[in-house]
């Protein structure tokens, strides 16, 4: 959890956002807290060079506030309609303290990215043409589809839909995966995108159209102007080591809690199954079945709850790795 965020006050601010009889000062505090998060995102994106297109005369906070303005508008009754709708969709009252902070961060990051990309797109005809071409290519395929969600268009695997309960794959991470794939045209990299979305489990199997267009354009530029590989063997080894270390630490930390409730050996096997999910893209039930004979058949009833809890704890530990890699800001 972010050390500067008090979950008690955040819960009160959420309550005020959905209940018009709540304290207006709490709604103001929520907007200021969101602005802080948005400002941090803008600053980090600029430092990484990803948002170099932003006018340097614009202050980070001004950019964040401008991007968030529509998201926190109130109706005639004083209700913050958009964030209230989001909170109700994720059933926020059931979330624990850590999940509350994550929920706000996801909402803020999506809205800031939407706003910034909208500003960028308005002054970038080339990007607009690429988006139109990308939409046409998606419509001609059967394994992906275009879906409108939260007032923006997404490319997602057929049968999957964007949701509030998950984060989209970050543009930087998608670009890192695309640039090492074979392909020198946008349609070829769309094919690669489908494989990336299918073979990862850390994020939603969906990506906003604008984000995908930016990732494909950046990947094509790097392919035409060769640079060092986006993912070096050393980086891959570092990632694998981080996954093994995190899964092992989580399983060991749960031994006492689950003593007498399930075989201790299962915790170790769950840890190895989590490694298969995170490193090789296994489905959850397949990964557990690979480690515990016969588990695939009764995965939902006997294994799912504990295994997915271990996965959530592991992903939380891996957030630090992603922050340093600047590839998963949405999971901070």
Features:
3-stranded antiparallel sheet; 3 strands
Characterization of this structure:
With 332 residues, the protein is mainly alpha-helical. It has three domains: 7-122, no CATH class; 125-230, no CATH class; 233-325, no CATH class. Helices cover 62% and strands 5% of the residues. It is built from 13 helices and three strands. Strands 1-2-3 form a three-stranded antiparallel sheet. Strand 1 (144-149) and strand 2 (152-157) form a beta hairpin. Helix 10 (233-253) runs antiparallel to helix 11 and helix 12 crosses helix 13. The relative contact order is 0.08. Mean pLDDT is 78; it is low at 225-231 and 322-332.
Q: Could you give the count of β-strands?
A: 3
Backbone structural class: mainly alpha
| Silhouette | globular
Q: What is the radius of gyration computed over CA atoms, rounded to a whole number of angstroms?
A: 21 Å
Helical coverage, percent range: 55-70%
